[in-house]
Design a protein that fits this description.
The complex is a heterodimer of chains A (325) and B (339). Chain A has 325 residues and is an all-alpha fold. Chain A folds into 2 domains: 95 residues, no CATH class; 226 residues, Orthogonal Bundle (MetI-like fold). Helices cover 76% and strands 2% of the residues of chain A. Chain A is built from 12 helices and 2 strands. Chain A has a two-stranded antiparallel ribbon with strand order 1-2. With 339 residues, chain B is mainly alpha-helical. In chain B, 73% of the residues lie in helices and 0% in strands. In chain B, α4 crosses α8 and α10 crosses α11. The longest helix of chain B has 38 residues. Chain B starts with a helix and ends in a 6-residue tail after the last helix. Chains A and B meet through α1, α6, α7, α10 and α11 of A and α9, α10, α14, α15 and α16 of B.
Amino acid sequence: MLRFLVRRLLGAVVILALISALTYLLFFTLPSDPALLSCGKNCTPANVALIHHNLGLDKPVPVQYGEYMAGIFTGRRLPLGNCPAPCFGLSFANDAPVWTILSSRYPTTLSLAVGGAAVFLTVGVGLGLVSAWTRGSLFDRLASSVSLMGQSVQIYFIGPLAIYLLVDRLRWLDPGADPDWSHDPAGAVGGLVLPCLVMSVIFWSNYSRQTRSLMIEQLAEEHVRTARAKGMGRGYVFFRYALRGAMGPIVTLFGIDLGSVFGGAIITETTFGLHGLGQLAVAAVTQTDLPLEMGVMLFSSCAIVLFNVVIDASYAFIDPRVRLL
Amino acid sequence: MTSARETTTTGSDNETDAALARAASGTVPVGRSPRQLAWIRFRRDRTGVVCAVIVACFILIALAAPLITKAYGKNPYTLYGQDDGLLNSYGLPLKPNGGIDGAHWFGVEPGLGRDVLALLVYGIRTSLGIALCVTVLSVVAGVTVGLFQGYLGGRTDYVVGRFSDLMMSFPQQLFFIAFTPVIVAMFVRPGNAEPTWIRFAALVIVQFVLGWMALGRLVRAQVLSLRTREYVEAARLSGASTARIVRRELLPNIWSTVLVQSTLLLPVNVTAEAGLSYLGVGMQTPTPDWGLMFQDAAQYYQSDITYMFFPGVAMVVFVVAFNLLGDSVRDALDPKTVR
């Protein structure tokens, strides 16, 4: 286990280093001069030179990248101001350290992603289980058509509809709000219910479909049949034998979906007017705030890569046959 | 048809055999190619055929957008709402249900006051066009990479595999958001006027860059199992070149995977493109675009929910039709898979 973790973490570091290098290269060295991007419409050569100096763009690219990466661990003193330890540079827009902005924004996205994932895993896997249990029944057929609909709607379509119907008309739910976990946990949950629900809809279907077919596959396995033949209860075998076998592929699917969950969270944020990383990324792009953009990119890649390691490690708990090496 | 001709041209012994068989079983044995079999299975699948027709309609709408709007007598740029006084002082349509009437069948857009039907038809054209380019590029690249990766194996396989892992670990949505402007800026200096086709190209490029890996992996996996088959080895032993083996022995076998995957990939790309425009980093107003309609509608949903329905319902129908079509294509090509 320890060996596995060390290996996977080293792998994650390599991937992150490559992502950061590639992103840096694309942002700062393409023919598109970041100074031109950042100084906008009234651009004078003096401004450009100043921005070049402030960004350290007058140095060779590998040196710039080295300094940037070193800054993440040690902090930097930049011409525009001080940038303490996890230094992702200073935002062009307001000269604040990128890390300060990031750390104020990520809780929203993280809450949304975790909440949404919790909802779609529960609902999706649950629906799949019921469908597999009642295979061929009316419920099963109904669930598969609902799944198809779920797979085909978009957050930016059902989001506004849900707000219109559930919030404005029926007043059942609160409109989405940025969570404030330390001061108002109840309000945070209330404000996340609708966004998480809306976000989860597009993921349900896949999980219920996969769970259903995996369970049906598992129920036909010989060890399951043997267990039933020995006289074990249908429910016991269903959950303790078949579900256990179906768990692995579901978790794999979740690992593959992590990126899309994050992407879904971004669109959900915009739909509900929440201030998370996605909204930050869009704002950074519209203001051509490259350091901020770079920060969001690195931070999110880091989160996704690390979550993936956690998910891979969780196989060991789900399936005792898996040896992590 | 070919089989019928064969039976008539073969010798008299065969003919009598065939006649005997016909007499014995009461049916005419007909030899069919896998492609014909798949086509027959597909035609029997009613859902599949209906979906194929719907999909064809969407493609036709996209292709014939100028003709449709010409026949309809509106274009997607004129601000009818403002010019003809169809909007109130808040920019909302005066008439109920989003200003639907005989002149504007789907109503007028709140705010700018363009015609919704014309906007939708042209929006579908833009989004579908981008998605189609992305899909074609991704499929070509994915198949090429997967084929060579699987067939050559060894170090090539390893290096390309790790590269595709790397590309897969990028947070996709964020990558699109971040790099669309960077690519646009490669072509146009910031602040200068930006032709629409550059946005178009930039969106195609960013989505393509992260779009080919999934298919590449599938193809690689298939080729890995195919390349040790006897007929491939026989071809290699008889001196066939790599290019020939790839083209004549491997490609025909992965065709069905490629077809199914591209059918499923296209709607994903359409919604991704619309999502980017919705977020404000894709196509820009006044270019008509499916995603931009949602962005617009999201600002007005409280007062003019009708406007959101047209692009919304159109997109749901489109995606449902495409997904079902993908399933039917899979069933037709590979009848053994059970859903």
